[in-house]
Design goal:
There is one protein chain. Helix 25 runs parallel beside helix 28, helix 37 packs parallel to helix 41 and helix 45 runs antiparallel to helix 52. This protein is an alpha+beta fold and about 1750 residues long.
């Protein structure tokens, strides 16, 4: 059974490929265009809602914790057994990355999962608490569980911390405040959840637009990746053949007898393994030359432990050497196919699917289905050995016959007779490869030789028999070109009789059989019925409802006959081929009936008129019906009239079903079925169970002549027909087949092509058409019409090769002939169109087909792409004028339609694969500029009320397609991996948006200067301008997740604010107010019910998806009941919150009606265990959404731009764009982390470089020196002294003014004998001196003493500390020697490595140079000062003091409750010393600060003054552990505060040695470590500082732009929707800039100050707006006030510092917050909700 199924699928596959091959291939370049939604879908709400309803439904993604629940439980149990008390965020992320193989960008998902357990947000969680929570949750999302919320409150130190607020210690108050701040940061409301009813309708529209567009772009991205370059770039391959079954056979680890249950296409059956756990596999042996692209398996969630959870895919050349290429985790709630490989490129012989783990660690597994789809490389067509031998043998025979013809002419007659006899048994299409009777030895190559031979021997005689023979042979082959050639010859003898009746009958039979065979089910609707149903539930509408299991259609009592009328429900037509009817059993079943297919005059449908038209048949019974059958048996189907039945049926007594084949398959608008009588006359009513209709949807157009016969010939009974009839019949037959082929290709269904288009070209069409045109007969006009219809069906064939064929492969003569024929045919068709209107019906029909040909033939009449582009641009310049001929307008519409539908990239000529370095974007911009100019001219014409005919519609379609093609191309490049392509896409996007906005400003300014905004909005609502602007903004809204220049785009769109305000002023306020009066409407309803009682071991998942829904209402039946706790119903809303119900409905725990307010998705899960079941469930789900509201394009554009600007501003503030940061953004994250983790970051690196050390800062040095003249000058003198000392050559004597000072310093430092015997040399000596200079410079006390020494000219003696420091600097000689020894040992151990390391040999010389570079870098920073008594130093000190607090709130080091903190060591931090304790979690170095405990304000002075005391020493050990790996965090510090006090008292009593200089100045160790650290170079430090400066400049620029936007949007106030929408979007990335200013440390003091001032202005604007609300006196703006207040509070939630206190005083922050909190909340609630 499985083999049979596989065989049938392969036949369909081959047939599909034959269809593609026969049709010549569809144009590939424009294949991706239909993926983008048309303009109506995104801009019209009704179409938008329909499009969203068609989006694919998918189950909610399984949470990360649930996905790896068992692995996390085992990991936690293992840690608990080892005695670990806590788990850190880093450890949690590492274990998730190891078990799930997450990508680098998935860390955010791990952090969100950890946040569910982290009650305090400090980065650590108790192992026991996490293990308990995991076990209780069973892997569910913890955020939706009430029990988890209770556990969080119990574990959070905020709860007992409220007691600490009332304690006397102010330190506890500060600590608790920091906890509350962190809690608020983690749980702050999302900007999308802030209620603003005015915008709910617009937000709903935007959400649906984004869903539709994102789905289209994702499908386009998948399509782009379907054909990798190595597949379609292979010159040896002519094409790729789609293969739906890539394997030859399947092997399994066990139970191989059930393999067919996995491949039979039925997911209800399954293959089940039989073996030990984790040992199951499925191995596919692939077909040769097949590239596997897609692999998927079907699973079922209700399989429970049999369901696979972790699956891997391995590939290899043989079964023994397989390599894993994919690891897939399958969520437990999925039922259906799961993709294992997508867009793969696997050509190995074996592909194996390994089931690594099952759900709940089950033993065996079940697989319900298997799909393997790929492509097969098909080599270029050549002559096979079999064909070559047959042709050789045939050529021998034909050469003998040809040679004998001269001596014996009878040979020709004999051959023709034999050929005619053979053709009598070869009906049309019988020799095509798609025919079931096709002989394999008669390949196309052999048939071509036979055809050439027949033409050669008949060239001397052109008799009707010869012409008929050639035509019959061409029809048997299905060759369109040969048929046209034969018909072209027959055209010269239209009155000649031909014995072709049998051939014509064969064509009709073949056509009829094909229609029967490939008819598809039609979805028709009931239009009318002439009798009523027995009941409401048994009406005629039940006839079309499947399955046929209900009552069907039962007429009312006394009615034993009925007539029903069916149609498509629209004005479209259809062609019925078969009808399947099932009647009721017994006496009431219908016995016989008639079928009518007809058309009616367009207009309103009147059922009475339709029934009256066929009322003559209403009196028929079975006797009249059988008499009709006798008369019809002797008549031809062509004799059927418009009102005659085209089908009839009679149901036998034993059977209830009958298949009715139409005797004439007529294209019509209506279908009437008359049920004439019942089986027994005694029946009281008629009963029909159901019916289904098969056929085709067809375009309705007038056919030239239904009979397709000569009008001059009389009907005779003889076997001859005239040439005219033969011509029309044959041409109509071929035209219908070609038309069917086109429709099948457009439908995307599999099909077989019985036509061969080889050799078909436009020259052949033109020659044939020209002959027909020269004949004035009416039948020739019919033939011309048919030929043009055939030409339209062949357009894809005539143009398909032009895009893929290379120029050198096309003969020059063929190209020239094709071009000449195209020009002549185009010229003639234009003349026909431009002729005056004629009342002659055939001429009218011909003219209509000429128009259709011109409209769809742009690619044929302008065969070269460049010619088409040039022609279109030429027409664009003056197409808006009205004096053009009709043919010009048709040609313009044709070109626009071609570039819109088939080749949107043809105008832009963007590279499809790869980007060349010299690609010129000016061509792309020039094309778009031309379109924009046409759009501007169109606006001017529309404002003058000048009709645009149909050019405006095609222009809109063209602009939409071309702009969509440009933007989608940019999207594909930005989502790709080619950096050059990304850069090009960004460059094009930036330039195009700038050019677009410039044109928009010009258009709006011009229009607003002449007309009012209301007039403009009304008159150009259907313009290209109104459409294109919104399309661009809609696309850019989805582009905001990509790396694009946000700030640049924001600045560009900000220039539209004032213009859009003028365009959309007060008139639109009433529209938005009317939105709020609309009530939610029911969008969709579902009903769910379980068996009663339900079964055990159920795990059923359903998803209710309704795009546009804002909430769901679930109403339960009062009988609902489940087993308590173990069996339950679980609902998951769109935000992931879960709600469970069990036991009995009607209780507080399970109410009868529940509302879920998070749309547009609701997921339902029913779970039952293995025992005890109850009644079950029955409920209805109703999706409520907002109704469609009228939104003018002007208001729509204004709100879209406001949303876009807010989103761009948010992304810019969060520094999401790396491109705007320049080359500094390319710095590897590890280097940034190492610099930020360095102990010197806070005291040294984050501060500003000296003015003269900054590049390009010499101009500002004078200003900087004047500003700091009081203290900067002495420091500069001493610093320059140290720099000169560091740069001096120790091998030479000191000279110059400072020589004596140098000598004195050297004498004071070298009291101890230097260790020059270890490592010596002038470079090493200089390294020692420079290191010494850096140590002194960055130690405040030593630098101050040296300053006194330098200022006194050497008179003030230097202390012994300098000698000790110099000794420390001299110790680098030992370090150099150690590094040299390590290098030698490493090279000695590995000989190969020795060769690789010779180039970078480690020796003291190179190490000394690095030391000098780093020391000079340290000397370029501003000195660290020990004491500052001036106001400036105090402010700086306060600023540095707040940095640890800021860092605590950001990096979240583990803290206990506030009570525990009293007994922990309180590290003293002084900004003057620059010493800060370092976190034990050194790996979390993505921030700019080091982890420290927060210090209360009252203790800052004490901490600063105690810099040289014991608290500083307590930080030394922490600093030394910076580079150590993260250790397991503990709950309590090793030394509490009380213990430290005891140690200090004991130290006062006991004598202790004098501390060394290294102990006295801990920063010395940090400096030495930095100089010795080879992984941290001076280039890295400078690059990080440059990165921070670039980030700061970017932030400053965007803050200024935001302020400008608010100044424009906030006039006259900021409480109208565009401004509120901008503010809400601005908060979208609020989590990324909470600790804003701390992340910008290192950008420079002046830049940092400018940023803070810009931020002040932004906050001040909102403060003034909130304070000024009372002056507006408009209660309808209260919801907007709430949004602005929320935005203000979020912007105030920043890492403020003591220096910001003056700003708080200025805005009166306490009074502002108090006023906000005291406002009447009830009034707000009444307005908002």
């Amino acid at each position: 059974m499985g083999t049979a199924a596989s065989h049938s699928s392969e036949e369909e596959e081959e047939g599909a490929e034959e269809g593609m091959e026969g049709a010549g291939g569809a144009p590939q370049a424009g294949a991706a265009a239909p993926a983008l939604p048309p303009a109506e879908v995104l801009l019209e709400q009704a179409r938008l809602r329909e499009a969203t309803a068609r989006l694919r439904e998918a189950a909610l993604p399984e949470p990360l914790v649930s996905r790896h629940h068992s692995a996390l439980v085992r990991w936690l149990e293992e840690r608990l057994s080892r005695g670990d008390e806590a788990v850190s965020l880093e450890q949690f992320c590492e274990v998730l990355e190891s078990v799930s193989r997450l990508a680098a960008g998935s860390r955010g998902e791990s952090e969100e999962a950890f946040a569910q357990f982290d009650a305090e947000g400090d980065g650590t969680v108790d192992v026991e608490n996490m293990l308990e929570a995991l076990k209780n949750s069973s892997g569910a999302n913890l955020q939706g569980e009430l029990s988890h919320v209770i556990r969080q409150l119990q574990a959070c130190s905020l709860v007992p911390g409220f007691i600490d607020i009332f304690s006397e210690s102010k330190e506890r108050l500060g600590l608790h405040a920091s906890m509350i701040l962190r809690f608020l940061h983690r749980n702050r409301i999302s900007s999308t959840a802030i209620p603003y009813p005015v915008l709910e309708y617009f937000n709903n529209i935007c959400t649906m637009r984004s869903s539709v567009l994102k789905d289209s772009l994702d499908r386009l991205l998948l399509k782009e990746r379907e054909y990798p370059s190595d597949l379609n770039g292979n010159q040896e391959s002519d094409k790729l053949k789609s293969v739906t079954k890539c394997y030859t056979h399947i092997e399994t680890s066990s139970n191989s007898a059930d393999i067919d249950k996995m491949t039979n296409g039925e997911t209800s059956s399954f293959w089940q393994s039989d073996g030990s756990a984790r040992s199951h596999w499925i191995r596919l042996k692939m077909k040769p030359d097949v590239v596997l692209r897609h692999l998927s398996i079907a699973v079922a969630a209700n399989d429970q432990s049999y369901m696979p959870q972790q699956v891997t895919v391995a590939v290899g050349r043989n079964a023994s050497s397989l390599q894993e290429v994919r690891d897939v985790h399958i969520p437990s709630n999925i039922t259906g196919y799961v993709t294992l490989l997508e867009n793969a490129n696997i050509s190995q012989m074996y592909v194996q699917i390994n089931i690594k783990r099952c759900l709940s660690d089950g033993c065996d597994t079940r697989i319900h289905g298997l799909r393997a789809v790929g492509y097969q490389r098909v080599k270029k067509v050549g002559v096979s050995v079999c064909d070559a031998s047959a042709i050789w043998y045939w050529s021998l025979l034909t050469s003998l016959v040809t040679a004998s013809m001269e001596t014996n002419p009878a040979f020709v007659h004999t051959i023709l007779q034999n050929t005619q006899k053979a053709l009598q048994h070869m009906p049309p299409l019988s020799l095509t490869p798609g025919s079931t009777d096709f002989s394999s030895f008669l390949s196309p190559n052999v048939l071509e030789e036979v055809d050439s031979f027949l033409i050669r021997i008949t060239s001397c005689c052109t008799t009707p028999e010869v012409e008929l023979t050639l035509l019959a042979f061409a029809l048997a082959r299905g060759s369109v070109a040969k048929v046209l050639s034969s018909l072209c010859a027959i055209t010269d003898h239209l009155d000649t009789p031909y014995k072709a009746s049998s051939l014509i009958s064969s064509m009709a039979a073949v056509r009829q059989n094909l229609l029967y065979k490939y008819g598809k089910p039609l979805r028709l609707t009931l239009q009318a019925c002439d009798v009523k149903g027995k009941e409401d539930k048994s009406g005629p509408e039940n006839l079309l409802v499947e399955p046929w299991t209900g009552d069907g259609f039962l007429t009312e009592t006394g009615k034993t006959r009925a007539s029903i009328i069916l149609s498509t429900g629209t004005e479209s037509s259809f062609q019925v081929t078969q009808i399947r009817i099932k009647v009721r059993r017994g006496a009431i079943g219908a016995q016989c009936g008639l079928v009518f297919a007809y058309n009616a005059a367009s207009g309103r449908f009147h059922a009475e008129e339709h029934f009256k038209r066929f009322e003559s048949y209403d009196k028929w019974k079975l006797r009249e019906f059988k008499q009709f059958l006798k008369t019809r048996s002797s008549c031809s189907c062509d004799d059927l009239g418009e009102d005659d039945p085209i089908g009839w049926f009679e149901v036998e007594e034993e059977w209830d079903e009958v298949d009715v084949k139409m005797q004439q398959c007529r294209v019509s608008q209506y279908l009437m079925i008359k049920f004439l009588c019942t089986r027994q006359e005694s029946a009281e009513r008629l009963g029909v169970q159901g019916l289904s209709v098969l056929g085709y949807l067809r375009p309705l157009r007038d056919e030239p002549c239904r009979a397709m016969s000569c009008l001059q010939c009389r009907r005779t009974e003889e076997d001859t027909v005239c040439g005219t009839t033969l011509l029309l019949k044959t041409l109509h037959f071929i035209q219908q087949l070609a038309q069917d082929l086109v429709q099948q290709k457009e439908s995307g269904l599999k099909y077989k092509s019985f036509l061969d288009f080889t050799g078909l070209d436009l020259q052949l069409f033109w020659n044939f058409y020209n002959k027909l045109h020269q004949n004035p007969r009416e039948e020739c006009i019919f033939a011309q019409t048919l030929l043009l219809q055939l030409l339209q069906s062949c357009f894809s064939v005539l143009t398909g090769d032009n895009k893929t064929a290379k120029p050198q492969e096309t003969p020059q003569s063929k190209t020239a002939g094709h071009t000449e024929a195209a020009e002549e045919l185009y010229r003639h068709l234009c003349e026909v169109v431009d002729m005056g209107d004629s009342n002659f019906m055939p001429m009218k029909m011909l003219k209509e087909e000429v128009k259709n040909t011109l409209l769809s033939g742009a690619a044929v009449f302008f065969p070269d792409r460049q010619t088409r582009r040039h022609q279109l641009f030429t027409m664009m310049k003056n197409i808006t004028e009205q004096e053009h001929k009709q043919s010009v307008h048709l040609a313009f519409r044709s070109l626009c339609t071609h570039f819109s539908d088939q080749d949107p990239g043809g105008l832009l000529l963007l590279p499809e694969k790869g980007v060349s370095a010299n690609f010129d974007i000016s061509e792309v911009l020039s094309v778009m500029d031309t379109l924009l100019l046409v759009a501007a001219r169109e606006c001017e014409m529309m404002m003058l009320d000048v009709a645009q005919q149909e050019s405006g519609t095609v222009l809109s379609s063209l602009f939409w397609s071309v702009q969509g093609s440009l933007l989608s191309w940019c999207y594909l490049q930005l989502k790709g991996t080619d950096n050059a392509a990304k850069d090009l896409a960004v460059e094009i996007l930036k330039n195009y948006v700038g050019q677009f906005l410039s044109n928009i400003r010009t258009i709006l300014q011009s229009l607003l200067s002449q007309y009012s905004g209301k007039t403009i909005v009304e008159k150009i609502s259907s313009s290209v301008f109104a459409m294109a602007t919104r399309q661009l903004v809609i696309f850019l809204l989805d582009f905001c997740t990509l790396d694009i220049p946000y700030c640049t785009l924001l600045q560009g769109f900000s220039t539209l604010i004032e213009l859009l305000k003028s365009l959309c002023s007060e008139p639109h306020k009433t529209d938005m107010e009317s939105w709020q009066q609309e009530q939610p409407v029911v969008l969709r309803t579902w009903t769910m019910e379980s068996p009663h009682n339900y079964e055990n071991n159920c795990h059923e998942v359903s998803v209710f998806l309704c795009h546009g829904a804002i909430y769901f209402e679930v109403e339960f039946d009062e009988k609902c009941e489940t087993e308590r706790r173990y069996d339950y119903l679980e609902f998951t809303d769109a935000r992931g919150a879960k709600t469970r119900y069990d036991t009995k409905v009607g209780t507080d725990k399970w109410p009868k009606k529940v509302t879920f307010k998070a749309g547009p998705r609701l997921q339902f899960l029913f779970h039952s265990d293995s025992s005890n079941n109850e009644w079950g469930y029955k409920f209805s789900v109703t999706a409520y959404g907002l109704p469609d509201v009228a939104v003018s394009w002007g208001l729509d554009l204004q709100l879209l731009v406001s949303r876009l600007m807010g989103r761009l501003a948010s992304r810019s503030m969060a520094l999401k764009s790396l491109r705007e940061l320049g080359s500094e953004a390319d710095l590897p994250p590890l280097k940034v982390t190492s610099v930020l983790n360095s102990p010197l970051w806070k005291p040294v690196f984050r501060h500003q470089l000296c003015p003269e050390a900054l590049p390009g800062a010499r101009q500002n040095s004078a200003k900087h020196q004047d500003k700091n003249e009081a203290w900067s000058s002495p420091h500069d003198v001493c610093r320059n002294f140290l720099i000169d000392f560091a740069k001096s050559d120790p091998a030479q004597d000191f000279s110059g003014q400072k020589s004596e000072l140098f000598k004195g310093l050297i004498q004071a430092c070298k009291k101890q004998t230097p260790k020059t015997d270890i490592v010596a040399g002038p470079t090493v000596d200089q390294a020692v001196n420079s290191t010494f200079a850096a140590l002194v410079y960055l130690t405040p006390d030593l630098f101050e003493k040296l300053q006194k020494y330098v200022n006194s000219g050497g008179k003030v003696p230097l202390s012994d500390e300098f000698a000790q420091v110099y000794s420390l600097a001299d110790s680098i000689r030992i370090w150099m020697l150690e590094m040299k020894q390590k290098s030698l040992m490493g090279r000695g151990n590995d000989a190969e490595e020795k060769q690789n390391t010779e180039a970078s040999e480690v020796n003291p010389e190179t190490l000394a140079k690095l030391c000098v570079q780093k020391s000079l870098l340290l000397l370029n920073f501003l000195p660290v000062r020990a004491k500052r008594k001036d106001s400036a130093s105090e402010s700086l000190e306060g600023q540095d003091m707040d940095d640890p607090q800021q860092y605590v709130s950001d990096q979240c080091q583990r803290q206990g409750s506030a009570v525990d903190m009293d007994f922990q060591a309180a590290p003293s931090v002084s900004s003057s010393a620059g010493i800060h304790p370092v976190s034990k979690e050194g790996g979390q170095a993505s921030q700019s600060d080091l982890k420290v405990k927060q210090i209360p304000d009252l203790h800052q002075a004490e901490a600063a003054s105690a810099f040289h005391s014991k608290p500083v020493e307590s930080t030394v050990s922490q600093q030394e552990d910076v580079s150590s790996p993260p250790s397991t965090p503990t709950r309590k510090s090793q030394l509490g505060r009380g213990r430290l006090r005891l140690l200090s008292f004991r130290s006062m009593e006991e004598p202790r040695p004098v501390p060394t200089v290294k102990e006295k100045y801990p920063i010395l160790k940090s400096i030495l470590d930095f100089i010795k650290d080879q992984s941290l170079s001076h280039e890295s430090v400078l690059k990080v500082l440059a990165l921070r400066k670039s980030q700061g400049q970017s932030i400053l620029e965007v803050l200024k732009t935001i302020r400008q936007c608010l100044d424009s949007l906030g006039q006259p106030h900021c409480f109208h929707p565009p401004c509120v929408l901008f503010l809400l979007e601005l908060l979208a990335c609020q989590k990324d800039f909470t600790n804003y200013f701390g992340n910008l440390e290192g950008c420079g003091a002046e830049l940092h100050k400018e940023i803070r001032e810009s931020y002040y202005k932004l906050v001040l604007f909102l403060v003034n707006s909130v304070k000024g609300f009372s002056t507006i006196n408009d209660r309808s703006l209260l919801p907007a006030l709430s949004c602005v207040q929320t935005a203000l509070l979020h912007l105030l939630d920043m890492s403020w510092e003591p220096s910001d206190l003056s700003f708080f005083v200025e805005i009166q922050l306490p009074h502002l917050l108090m006023t906000t909190s005291q406002e009447n909340i009830s009034i707000h609630d009444s307005v908002i909700w």
